Amino acid sequence: MDEVQSVVDWSVLPSRTRLTAGVHTLSLVVDSTGYVQSRESESNTATVSFEWSLNSSSPSDISLAPDRLPNLALFKPQDWEDSIKLDGLPSEEEVLSNPRDPRIQIAYNNVGLSSIRQFFLVQMRLDNVLIAKFSQQGLVSNGAVITPPWRKLLDIIHLTIGFHTITIQLDPTNLVQETDETDNFASLRFYWGGDPPPAAPTTYLSEDTQPKIVAYAPTGWSGPLIVTSYPGKTGALGPVYRDGDAFVSWAIINEGTGSLDGPFIVDLLLGGSVIQSWTRPGLESGAIDVVIDELLEVSPNPGVYEIQLLVSLGNTEEVSTSTSLLATRSVGWLDGETPELTTELLDRGDLARRLTIVETLRSSSNPATDSEEQLDALNTIVDAVYQTLYRFPLQDEPLVINILTDAEFEQWVDAECSDVSPTLDPSVQSLYLDKCETTKGFIGYHTSWRGAFRIVVKGERSPMLVLSTLAHELGHFRQSHTNPELDNRANINVLALREAQAYAHQVLFFRTLEGLSGLDLLLYPELPGYETFIKTQLDNLRQNSETSEHARGQLVLWLALLADPNLRQERTILFNNLSIPAETAEDLFNYLIDFSPGQARIYVTVLMRSIGAQIGAMEELALARLVQGLPYWIEGSPHLREIGLLMP
């Protein structure tokens, strides 16, 4: 029986592919997967050519900020083996008798610095034959999609026993202009018909598995061996003052392919004589070992001395080291007490000129630790904002900022915890060490240890995420520096108030940076993805507020403005502007850090009683900030959207 199917006046071609000027060929393929047995399969294809001309009145704006375009990429979710997940493959018996459809899922995200507004497609192919396509309407920056299981494979194509390949292509019709078009593909090879045939045995070449201990210069250090009068100062070395304390830091790494399982000794020599020694239990392949700001036990006469770092490996003769000397430095000792640091303040014009780097930094997706230029830029921005806020140079504060790799961060936590733990009462040591392990999962933390406040941050993140973390931890530093009575309190309401202070400082920091740089850093477009983000995150904050001081603190920051009668003027500014400017954020921060622990417990308890009445106002204020038609090059960093949308 003959039956005719037709499509008339199909007019959506320009919305399905980006057409360039010129001649194109349109093909229609019936039964493209060969599912239906047909006597004349060659008649299943028809083609037509046409010429397309562009509308010259619609110029492209991608040249304005090409680094800030979106970028689609496939990614591997936690617990997945790849960006394509294939479950439920039938056994050999099921394939031959009654095969069932496997479950196929894919995961992709927008890793670019701006959101995708338009519709785009995702195609799935099996052995280069199109078997499915999915559509997506927009995707915010840093937004991710994990598709529900697709179970129609056997309805689309006949599978033969053997190996097959699933290929995913994002935006195959090039509708989205991206920073990188090369990361839109992923493939997964699988066997249909039960267990795959055994693979040929792999022949491994013999490998030298010896350890190799060498000196290592951590991120931000001027070398692997530091001697200084100022704890935490690891940059360019100055003189050491013999009437004050001196501190030594060093770092080594096992660059060999084998672990050093036995103990070894690291010696510090001055003028050829051992002045300090450390016994270490061993060092795994690729692992780092550090000593940070240990008190130097000698104070020589004034003069210049050669300091050496040596490793002694005992009877472990198989270890590959060309010499036991790891590092050497010349250090000058002077008479007198250690002078206070004095750094000249910059005027506002100099600060503004230095902050021209903000645009470059916010357009970078590379990890901050990838280059000295990015690390220098981050330090420049932090110094400029801090000086503007407090009229005092950050370099002269008793504060050290370390932006580290993930491996270095873990070693920093271990170094502090192994030093502090033995000084604690045995009854709390276990709890303290558990907290140390939890800290390793943080992006950053603030502490006071060995004569200095310290901010330690994981730098293998985008520069703007690192900057946001620094702004938060600087809030903790200011509280500890000015109101230390709030430190080391276990009560969740006191902890929540401290987090509210740090969040207020993030707002203060970035509103100040906007004023100094002349850039809008916290604007986001009116898109369904951002509306969902706001509603979902506020729900999560409320659900987690009983157990998480961070969630509770973020709500307290809102509630202080919405419900505290002492902040009526600041509340009016919030309602009129939808967010608070730098001046109001400064008043709010100074107000919050002035509480005693007892006042903090009562204050947070009272504020949290109003959450049911105020959560709607938080959501409406956040949603009202979304800007319709915001150009992509002005959209804020995805790593600042919590500040821009979920804080006052």
- Global shape: globular
User: What count of helical segments does DSSP give?
Assistant: 17
Which strand order do you get reading across the main beta sheet?
13-19-18-15-16
Main sheet characteristics? 5 strands, mixed
From the alpha carbons, calculate the radius of gyration and give it in angstroms.
Answer: 31 Å
Unreliable residue runs: 316-323
Proportion of strand residues: 15-25%
Q: From the helix content, strand content and strand pairing, which structural class follows?
A: alpha+beta
Count all strands and give the number. Answer: 22
> How many structural domains does the protein architecture include?
3
Textual characterization of the structure:
- The protein is an alpha+beta fold and 648 residues long.
- The chain folds into 3 domains: 65-192, Sandwich (Immunoglobulin-like); 213-334, Immunoglobulins (Immunoglobulin-like), CATH 2.60.40; 348-646, no CATH class.
- The protein is 32% helix and 23% strand.
- The chain has helices at 13-16, 92-96, 153-156, 348-354, 357-362, 372-390, 406-420, 426-439, 463-482, 492-517, 528-544, 549-563, 568-577, 582-592, 597-608, 611-624, 641-646, and strands spanning 22-29, 45-52, 72-74, 84-87, 103-110, 116-126, 129-139, 144-146, 162-170, 185-192, 213-215, 225-228, 240-241, 247-254, 264-270, 273-280, 288-295, 303-312, 325-334, 399-404, 444-449, 452-458.
- Strands 13-19-18-15-16 form a 5-stranded mixed sheet, with no helix packed on it. Strands 3, 4, 5 and 8 form a 4-stranded antiparallel sheet that branches. It has a 4-stranded antiparallel sheet with strand order 7-6-9-10, with no helix packed on it.
- Helix 4 (348-354) runs antiparallel to helix 6, helix 9 crosses helix 10 (492-517) and helix 10 crosses helix 12 (549-563).
- It is globular.
- The relative contact order is 0.08.
